[in-house]
Structure formats: structure tokens, C-alpha cells
Amino acid sequence: MIKTDIIIIGAGPTGLFTVFEAGLLKLKCHLIDTLPQAGGQCSEIYPKKPIYDIPGFPEILAGDLIKNLMEQCKQFKPGFTLGERAEDIIKKKDGTFVVTTNKGTKHQAPVVAIAGGLGSFEPKKPILDRLDFYEDKGVEYIIKEPEIYRGKKVVIAGGGDSALDWSIFLANINADITLVHRRNEFRGALDSVEKVRELKNKNKINVITPAEVTKISGRDKLESLTITSKNTETELLADHFIPLFGLSPRLGPIANWGLEVEKNAIKVDTFDYQTNIPGIFAIGDVNTYSGKLKLILCGFHEATLMCQSAHKIIHPDKKNVFRYTTVSGVNGFDGSRKEAKKPVIQSINN
Amino acid sequence: MSDINIFIKDRDGVSHNIKAPIDISINLMELIRLHELAEEGTLGICGGTAMCASCQCYIESSHPLPKMEAEEEAMLSEAFYVKENSRLSCQININAKLSGLSLEIAPE
Ligand SMILES: Cc1cc2nc3c(=O)[nH]c(=O)nc-3n(C[C@H](O)[C@H](O)[C@H](O)COP(=O)(O)OP(=O)(O)OC[C@H]3O[C@@H](n4cnc5c(N)ncnc54)[C@H](O)[C@@H]3O)c2cc1C
Ligand code: FES
Asked: From A190, A254, A284, A315, which residue has the greatest number of CB atoms within 10 Å?
């Protein structure tokens, strides 16, 4: 059981900034995210695109914003459960919550902050007969342990950056890669396309285009795939099939936690962004209230106010005095650092 | 004159006659969201950057549409439920020439 002060569901910009604000108040955080990396939409959808409305940054790439947020919160040593989806929540008799993921990892804390954005990023699945039967029996949508593909026959489908990048990566650890895409053109970074072309010329990647995987076969697990290209079907032996058609967000299990949900978002009280269940907060894109805007800066504001109430729940007897980081530093919010460095006071005319 | 009519069939098959403004710059995806014709969080996920295909629609009338750019074509080639008349609604800006346009929102 992982124990902490605040369990944060969602490691997007809102979740990451919560770690910082909670850290100022000496509260420890643990983040859970379905994605294998932090950053939410900023990392998954538009890491290389600029954002112009982060206060103090006339322009910053979404990926760089996440890098900075990670840097800013790292001093408070947050824990991470990545690649797992928060599935289930129970409230214990002592008032704490236990959040369990789809992989069975349990987390316990007196406060839960749902910073789930548009929802948990789930893979878009191709329309294929009995696809669900073969899931985890050779069909995978997210690559978590690249090593399992070493020396194996792997078919990757898709035409974007992740299909290209993983084809390159896995070919380099000696997986036998076939890349299947519906068109001859790929929608990826130029250098990735070049690299795949190079590997294809060296016979290290087999590229089949324009083509589609149209059938999965195998008794107990995936054994072969049917690939259709210009009305011709070919059967290809395969140990793994990795369709990479992007991810799409789903509120998913959180919708069944007894929280008030309206238009796929969680209703909150704007005093502190608490939900209808005391101790559970919802911040960032995942919440809704009158006048809500789904912007990063709104998530930051909500995280800051939420932490004040979280502190009251976690330490009902401790006073929390309002302070500036300039004056108290980032470690002095509990009063342990009394004063900031004083300016020199000296006469110039003596 | 600053409004035109656009006919939109939602994912439940219900048809809506929508008044669309042409005096502001707005695309079909934004129009659909403005009128909440798709469940929140299921359409326009990439904010209109031709990177998610969640705004795919089928154009049912023969109005003059902007030519498909390479990004839109590439994204549609990776999407599901694609038909001959599929377009990404975020890539079509509304203008007076689209008066009477008829479209259906593609399944999720
Ligand atoms: C193309 C694009 C451009 C944008 N441009 C701007 C801009 O210029 N300015 C601006 O302010 N905003 C912009 N936004 C919006 C901005 O990205 C969001 O407001 C912001 O990402 C919200 O942050 P968040 O942390 O609340 O949620 P998200 O970034 O969505 O992160 C939520 C995380 O929670 C995870 N999650 C959800 N449910 C679960 C679960 N059950 N278990 C585990 N993990 C879960 C998800 O996997 C995800 O990683 C843009 C968005 C897009 C798509
Ligand atoms: S909104 Fe994402 S492709 Fe149109």
C-alpha cells in the first residue's frame, strides 16, 4: 500500500502544479496516470506546439512547460504510478481513501485530488473481429516493456509519430518489425520517416503500404495476421500486434464513483473545488462550475486554493499562515525558516 | 445578414437546423460544440489542429468546400468509420457559400 497525504489522479499540468502547492504546505503527493509519461494533453497531444497564455511566458512549448513543472515540483519528491488507471475508490472507517488501479496497485491518503483532464487516455482500437479476445494475448496498444519484443515478430499498424518511433526503437533491439499503414505517406516528423526508410533499405523493417490488418488468427493467442493490400490478402506470422492509432480520453471509471457529473465533468464548489464527497477534490479540465474555462492557468489557480482545504483536512490542528515564496522560500511555509535574507542597510554618505 | 443555416445530424441520428454566424471566424467543429451537439469531451479533442479526428463528419450536400490539406488527409487515413464524404469539421471555416450545408457527425 502506497501511503501519502494527497493522491493525485492525473499527472497533467494541473496535477503537477498541485504537487508544488501541496509541497509548500509540507503535504506529500503521489500521482497516478494511465499514460506512461507525465504531462497529460500537453505531452500526449501537442508537446511541440507553442502556448501563449501561460502568465510570464510570452511563448512556451507545451513539452517545455511540462519539463519546467516537473523541475519545479521535483524538490517535493512526488511518487508516481504511471501506466495504470485509477479504477476504484473506497472510503475507510478512519476517513482515508484507498484508490486502486487496474493493475491492483493500492494508494491510501486522507485527500484525493482528481486532476483527470478530459479523462484517462485510452487507445483507439481498430475495428477487428475478436480483437478483445487477443488483448494481452499478443495484442497491445501501449508499449511499456520494450524488452519483451526482442527477437519477436512484431506487426505495428499506424501512420503517425508513435508508429514510426516505436518501429525504429524496436527494430534497433532486434525485433522483426513489419509496419502496416493505410497510405503510402506517413504523418510524422521528417527525421523519423527518413530513419524508417533507411531501416527498410537495410531490410531491418518491413513496410507494407497501402495496407490494413483485416483479421487476427490464433487458437489461444495471436499467431498470425491477415494483411489486405489492394484487395490481395496475405497471412503473416506474428507474436505481437501493436495498433497505434492514437489515444482518446475517457472519463471512465471515475464516472461511477458517486460524484456529481455533468457533461462528462465533475461538479465542484468554487470555494475550494471540493466535490460532493468531502475529501475528494476535482481540479483542472475535469471539473465544471458556472463560468468554467478549460485552461492551464485556471487549473493552476484551482490547485492552489484546493491545497489550502486539503491542509485543513490533513492537519486539522495545525494553523496555516498565508506566506509568499519570495519571503519564506519554498521550504519555509511551516514557519521553520523565520526570515528571508535582509537587504544591506548602509549609509552611502559617510 | 450575418447568419446562415446549417443542417447537422448528431450521433443519435437527430437532425438540427442551426443558425451559424458568418461575421465571426468559426469552423464547423466549433459550431457543433457551441450548440452542444456532441457529448462534451468527445469532439474537438485536439482543439482543431487536425490531430485527433474526433471531429470527423460526413458532408451530405455538394457545397464548395476548402480543399483538403495534407494534414487532414493524413489524419483521416488513420481514422475509423471513414467514408468518401468524410471531412474533419475543424478544417472547414464557415462562410456565406456554405448556406444550407448538410452534414452528419461521424461515430466516436
Ligand atoms: C491542441 C491543444 C492546444 C491547447 N492550447 C492551450 C493553450 O494555448 N492554453 C491553455 O491554457 N490550454 C490549452 N489547451 C488545454 C490544456 O492543455 C488543458 O487545459 C490542460 O492540459 C488541462 O490540464 P489537466 O492537468 O487538468 O488535464 P490533462 O492535461 O488532460 O491531464 C489529465 C491526465 O489525467 C489522466 N487520467 C484521467 N483519468 C485517469 C484515471 N482514471 N486514472 C489515471 N489517470 C487518469 C490522463 O491520462 C491525463 O494524463 C490546449 C489543449 C489542446 C489539446
Ligand atoms: S478537432 Fe481534432 S481533428 Fe478536428
From this structure: A284
**Above 70 in pLDDT, residue A336?**
no
Cα-to-centroid distance, B49 and ligand 2 (Å): 6
Q: What DSSP string describes B12-71?
A: TS-EEEEEEESSS--BHHHHHHHTT-S-TTSS-TTSSSSSS-TTEEEE-S----PPPPHH
Range A125-243: architecture per CATH: 3-Layer(bba) Sandwich (3.50)
Q: How far is CA A343 from the centre of its chain?
A: 43
A150-175: per-residue pLDDT in tens?
999 999 999 988 899 999 999 998 88
Return d(Cα A177, Cα A221) in angstroms, integer.
19
| Residue of A183, A246, A251 with shortest CB distance to B52 | A246
Beta strands in A124-260 (DSSP E): 153-157, 176-180, 205-208, 212-217, 224-229, 232-237, 240-243, 247-250
A337: exposed, middle or buried (C-beta count within 10 Å: 0-12, 13-18, 19+)?
A: middle
Q: Residue A301 — φ and ψ, nearest 5°? A: -60, -45
Say what the pLDDT of residue B65 is.
Answer: 94
Q: Per CATH, is A2-121+247-328 categorized as 1.20.1250.20?
A: no
User: Quick check: A8 and A19 in contact, CB under 8 A?
Assistant: yes
The domain limits of chain A are: 2-121+247-328, 125-243
Tell me how far the alpha carbon of residue B31 lies from the centroid of ligand 2, in angstroms: 13
